[in-house]
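[Discussion] Sanity-checking designs against the backbone

I'm trying to build intuition for which residues belong where. Below is a structure token string of 726 positions. I'd appreciate it if someone posts a full sequence so I can compare it with mine line by line.
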């Protein structure tokens, strides 16, 4: 009954969303008015005076008031998996890049987005929205560049701080806070940040399953509590050595203690009377990561520019899963021990030289080198009547695991050439040619070395039909970054009935030829922005689950390359001030995306969507400022178009749906300048449901074993935050 209600509500929401998307698509070509811009046709400049009416406290507050830029700064924090991010430093993401005084932050985990919340509003001279391409920019291939220009000062310093009290659905209290010192002394500028940001979550899962003959199997209730301590210190330093040269250094160190406690009750409905199994898990996880990045830039008298940039980071994580079952004697006995110890290192160096060819053309050439290393060790112990117990696996019997202890290393070099051509005041073209050569080696349980070569061209053409209406087309070849954890055996975090996911030493990079056409229209008098983008991609060596079983009695799968696929879609966005209804300080930002993809499933041979790719997404963000009250409030609604989210594995198929997610906030600035903010996350206590269909043997045999229906909730999230500057 719950599923039927979800489906009916989803159809109604989808009809409304499609109607709005159609209205946006029709409105876009009808807009013909002109907007006055400050700067050239491709750049819109917002001076500090523009934001005074709203009383912002930080650079991020200022950015949130610009149509189309809310939340662009991203989350405030560092830490991450280097192998899961972008490939190297040269190519842009195609999204929005943040620059501070025209310079990017030399970091992957310590990036500019989080810095915006640490820069006081009185330090900001203006914010530039750069929509064109130029050899003068510090980033390439980005859809849009935001440059935060700071005032020059001989001596200044500000201290910002925040304190937050949050409460989870079970009443758990989570305090957090941070302090940042930001200042300038002559040619030297600095930002030091100390942050404690613990995260707590308590999810409740109910699962029911039936057998192939529709007989009842079992009912499971699981509580999962994750109590994540997250402490971090970072710094960003800059020094203008001379009028023509400058250097910057960034560093970050973070420590996380993230234990997870699980309690699970399983009621076996196949026996009479029903039997109850009680399990608990004690899963500690310790992690620390650091990063150091720096860059040096020299501008010659001819106007040519030399730049050297380097990054080094390391992420260490040790996690253990221990499962205990309540015996008839009332004692919890250990029946599973699984430890995963990993260290990921990444080092990147990039040097480039930029020079003018003619008055409207420039060229940049250089080389980037990178080294990425994964060291992984895995230990598995099971309760067994055979074998010798060992204290190394908590007194259980050690198990032989293939590809459990390995070192994976990639050495990559990329010579590149970038040509920028301002064809006319309205048109610019950026052409890129990159040659990538790399070697991936694996040692330990498996020894293997492979070499790869790729040619990666890109064209980015932008045409300002009017000062407000820009057309953009791109065509490029991308090489996706590999996740090195896929090369080695690891813990299966998705399926309690399966302990391990196998590694695949033969994995190769997924590549794609990607084409997109985007149009962006900035409404007159800064009323808002409307954009539409069509995209299409041909993928090669798509990464998905493949069968790596060594026998029919022990089916195993791993991430592998399954062949070629296609992807396409439409992305509509708008951000509009509602002055037409007398509310110019009400900013409404809807977005709607439709997408689809095809690839041949390796298990069944049928055409299907890419793994874990949903059909579309709907987001509605609203912010209402009431300056005379020193108050603003808003909400965000996020929802996916359900019905297409499947995951195929060697012996099961998963299907996932869920409710929309809502967030509310209210913010007040008192007369002392303190900002008080209340956030209510997951207001609707949304439900995420998954159906897993298990088969006897491989799914290609089509012999049904059982069907599991599972729904999870995480509860409403409350937080109250106070922020100040002095």
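Best answer:
Here's mine. Compare freely.
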């Amino acid at each position: 009954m719950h599923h039927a209600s979800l489906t009916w509500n989803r159809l109604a929401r989808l009809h409304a969303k499609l109607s709005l998307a159609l209205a946006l698509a029709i409105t876009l070509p009808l807009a013909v008015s002109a907007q006055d811009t400050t700067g050239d046709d491709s750049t819109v400049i917002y001076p500090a005076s523009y934001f005074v009416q709203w009383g912002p406290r930080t650079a991020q507050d200022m950015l949130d008031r610009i149509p189309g830029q809310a939340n662009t700064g991203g989350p405030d924090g560092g830490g991450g998996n280097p192998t899961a991010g972008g490939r190297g430093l040269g190519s842009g993401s195609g999204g929005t890049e943040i620059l501070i005084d025209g310079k990017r932050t030399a970091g992957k985990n310590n990036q500019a987005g989080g810095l915006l919340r640490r820069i006081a509003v009185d330090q900001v001279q203006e914010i530039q929205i750069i929509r064109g391409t130029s050899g003068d920019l510090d980033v390439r291939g980005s859809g849009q560049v935001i440059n935060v220009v700071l005032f020059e000062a001989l001596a200044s310093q500000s201290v910002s701080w925040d304190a937050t009290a949050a409460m989870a659905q079970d009443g758990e209290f989570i305090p957090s806070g941070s302090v940042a010192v930001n200042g300038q002394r002559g040619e030297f500028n600095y930002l030091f940040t100390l942050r404690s940001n613990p995260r707590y979550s308590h999810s409740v899962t109910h699962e029911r399953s039936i057998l192939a003959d529709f007989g009842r199997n079992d009912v499971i209730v699981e509580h999962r509590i994750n109590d994540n301590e997250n402490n971090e210190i970072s710094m960003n330093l800059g020094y203008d050595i001379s009028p023509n040269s400058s250097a910057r250094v960034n560093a970050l160190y973070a420590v996380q203690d993230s234990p997870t406690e699980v309690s699970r009750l399983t009621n076996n409905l196949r026996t009479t009377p029903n039997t109850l199994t009680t399990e608990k898990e004690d899963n500690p996880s310790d992690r620390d990561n650091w990063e150091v990045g720096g860059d040096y830039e020299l501008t010659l008298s001819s106007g040519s520019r030399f730049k050297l940039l380097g990054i080094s980071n390391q992420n260490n994580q040790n996690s253990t899963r221990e499962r205990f079952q309540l015996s008839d004697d009332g004692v919890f006995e250990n029946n599973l021990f699984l430890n995963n110890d990993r260290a990921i290192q990444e080092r990147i160096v990039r040097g480039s030289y930029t020079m003018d060819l003619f008055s409207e053309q420039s060229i940049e050439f250089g080389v980037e080198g990178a080294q990425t290393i994964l060291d992984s060790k895995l230990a598995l112990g099971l309760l067994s009547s055979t074998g010798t117990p060992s204290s190394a696996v908590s007194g259980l019997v050690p198990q032989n695991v293939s590809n459990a202890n390995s070192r994976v290393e990639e050495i990559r070099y990329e010579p590149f050439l970038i040509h920028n051509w301002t064809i006319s005041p309205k048109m610019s073209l950026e052409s890129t040619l990159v040659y990538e050569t790399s070697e991936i080696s694996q040692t330990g349980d498996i020894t293997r070395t492979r070499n790869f070569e790729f040619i990666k061209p890109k064209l980015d053409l932008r045409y300002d039909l009017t000062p407000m209406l820009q057309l953009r087309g791109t065509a490029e070849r991308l090489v996706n970054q590999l996740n090195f954890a896929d090369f080695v055996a690891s813990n299966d975090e998705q399926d309690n009935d399966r302990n391990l996911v196998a590694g695949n030493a033969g994995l190769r990079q997924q590549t794609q030829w990607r084409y997109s056409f985007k149009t962006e229209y900035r409404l007159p008098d800064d009323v808002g922005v409307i954009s539409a983008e069509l995209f299409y991609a041909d993928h090669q060596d798509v990464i998905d689950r493949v069968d790596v079983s060594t026998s029919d009695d022990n089916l195993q799968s791993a991430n592998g390359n399954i062949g070629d696929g296609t992807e396409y879609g439409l992305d509509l966005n708008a951000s509009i001030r509602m002055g037409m209804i007398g509310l110019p300080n009400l900013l409404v930002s809807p977005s709607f995306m439709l997408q689809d993809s095809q690839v041949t499933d390796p298990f069944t041979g049928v055409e299907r969507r890419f793994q874990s790719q949903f059909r579309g997404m709907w987001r509605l963000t609203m912010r209402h400022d009431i300056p005379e009250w020193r108050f603003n409030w808003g909400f965000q609604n996020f929802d996916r178009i359900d019905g297409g989210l499947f995951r195929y594995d060697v012996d099961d198929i998963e299907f996932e749906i869920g409710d929309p997610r809502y967030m509310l906030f209210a913010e007040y600035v008192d007369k002392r300048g303190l900002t008080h903010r209340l956030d209510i996350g997951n207001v609707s206590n949304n439900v995420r449901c998954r159906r897993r269909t298990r088969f006897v043997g491989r799914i290609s045999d089509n012999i049904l074993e059982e069907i599991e229906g599972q729904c999870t909730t995480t509860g409403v999230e409350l937080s109250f935050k106070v922020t100040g500057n002095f």
